[in-house]
């Protein structure tokens, strides 16, 4: 009874805050996860491999729902790479149908959705034993670390451009060399990657993952792993990003993919016309990684000067139109 009372009181206080105009109390308690209205029944996805050297995005949490913000990432990738296959791979065998999904598939001929046979992906790789013992289940961040493994495997098998589902692509990435990008003076990030299939650096990442997997640190198997491999293999120099021992790998400056660092994530969801203009008009800014772990609980108001909102209107207009006032 005490638990029910406290829960009811918390709900009542939140509703009261909403009704009295304190809208931030409504949004900041839980992730928004706004999704398009579904059309029953869900669509059964084909289980197929992505085309090599395309654009890959991954929903690896097993859910059938695609939020507006995920759709924005996918749409922006497809619009800026019209000559490449852009594939959203899902570990769920089905996806919620929606008018937005149908509109995007009809208007973007290069967009594909497929079910990823993730167990098969591990076969014959350095991570096969890790998968067989289901090591991620003991992780403090099981879904995130499982997705880390999938990311490295997908890049190694198929190559191309890998994008997290919390990005807005603002320019084509087709002319880039094999590359990753700095997110700070200390770390190379793994949210935007471009590599040829079976690249030795990605194989080194797989081997490092198998030998040094850490389930207790959120970024241990993503940015920390990649930074360490680049140091060991390429003599990565920080903060410059120079890799003198790897002629076929580039580490781009933070401005390319992470122009707003993660500790300043609020800037993406704060009214700032000058920052919006700066990010959208700078040819050196290729992708906006919007740090969903932090921004997911804050509304993106599409009639505002929030940089996230301005980027969405520019690069995922169909998603923005379907979302309405808030994405």
Task: Quickly list its features.
disordered N terminus, 14 helices, seven-stranded mixed sheet, alpha/beta, 13% strand, two-stranded antiparallel sheet
Secondary structure elements and pairings:
Blueprint: H1 2-19, H2 23-27, E1 43-44, E2 55-59, H3 68-80, E3 86-90, E4 94-95, H4 99-107, E5 111-115, H5 118-122, H6 128-132, H7 142-158, E6 160-163, E7 167-169, E8 179-182, E9 188-195, H8 200-212, H9 223-234, E10 250-252, H10 254-257, H11 273-281, E11 287-289, H12 292-295, H13 307-315, H14 317-323
Parallel strand pairs: 2-3, 2-6, 3-5, 8-10
Antiparallel strand pairs: 1-4, 6-9, 7-11, 8-9
What would your notes on this structure say?
The chain has 327 residues and is of the alpha/beta class. Helices cover 40% and strands 13% of the residues. The protein is built from 14 helices and eleven strands. It has helices at residues 2-19, 23-27, 68-80, 99-107, 118-122, 128-132, 142-158, 200-212, 223-234, 254-257, 273-281, 292-295, 307-315, 317-323, and strands at 43-44, 55-59, 86-90, 94-95, 111-115, 160-163, 167-169, 179-182, 188-195, 250-252, 287-289. The strands form three sheets. The protein has a seven-stranded mixed β-sheet with strand order 5-3-2-6-9-8-10, with helices on both faces. Strands 1-4 form a two-stranded antiparallel ribbon. A two-stranded antiparallel sheet has the order 7-11. Helix 7 (142-158) runs antiparallel to helix 8 (200-212) and helix 13 (307-315) crosses helix 14. The longest helix is centred in the N-terminal third of the chain and has 18 residues, at 2-19.
């Amino acid at each position: 009874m005490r638990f029910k009372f406290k829960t009811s009181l918390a709900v009542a206080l939140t509703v009261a805050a909403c009704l009295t105009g304190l809208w931030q109390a409504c949004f900041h308690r839980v992730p928004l996860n706004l999704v398009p209205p579904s059309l029953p029944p869900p669509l059964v996805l084909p289980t197929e491999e992505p085309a090599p050297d395309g654009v890959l995005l991954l929903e690896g949490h097993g859910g059938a729902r695609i939020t507006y913000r995920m759709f924005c990432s996918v749409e922006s990738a497809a619009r800026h790479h019209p000559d490449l296959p852009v594939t959203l791979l899902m570990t769920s065998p089905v996806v919620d149908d929606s008018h937005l999904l149908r509109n995007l598939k009809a208007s973007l001929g290069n967009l594909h959705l497929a079910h990823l046979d993730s167990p098969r992906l591990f076969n014959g790789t350095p991570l096969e034993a890790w998968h067989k013992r289901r090591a991620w289940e003991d992780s403090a961040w099981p879904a995130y670390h499982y997705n880390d493994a999938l990311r490295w495997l997908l890049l190694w098998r198929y190559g191309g451009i890998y994008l997290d589902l919390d990005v807005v692509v603002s320019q084509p990435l087709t002319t880039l060399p094999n590359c990753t990008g700095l997110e700070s003076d200390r770390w190379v990030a793994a949210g935007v990657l471009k590599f040829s299939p079976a690249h030795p650096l990605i194989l080194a990442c797989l081997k490092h993952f198998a030998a040094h997997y850490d389930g207790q640190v959120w970024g241990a198997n993503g940015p920390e792993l990649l930074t360490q491999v680049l140091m060991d293999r390429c003599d990565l120099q920080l903060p410059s990003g120079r890799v003198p021992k790897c002629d076929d790998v580039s580490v781009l400056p933070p401005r390319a993919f992470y122009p707003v660092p993660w500790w300043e994530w609020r800037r993406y969801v704060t009214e700032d016309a000058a920052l919006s203009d700066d990010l959208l008009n700078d040819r050196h800014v290729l992708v906006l990684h919007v740090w969903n772990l932090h921004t997911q609980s804050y509304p993106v108001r599409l009639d505002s000067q929030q940089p996230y909102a301005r980027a969405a209107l520019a690069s995922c207009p169909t998603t923005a139109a379907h979302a309405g006032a808030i994405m």
